[in-house]
Amino acid sequence: VAGVIRNRSADMVHALYNMNK
């Protein structure tokens, strides 16, 4: 379960990063 949560948070970080570009 921890791996899934980490994956989700990583996806959110990437989405925010891409939005800032």
UniProtKB/TrEMBL annotation:
It comes from Nymphaea colorata. It comes from the Eukaryota. This is Uncharacterized protein.
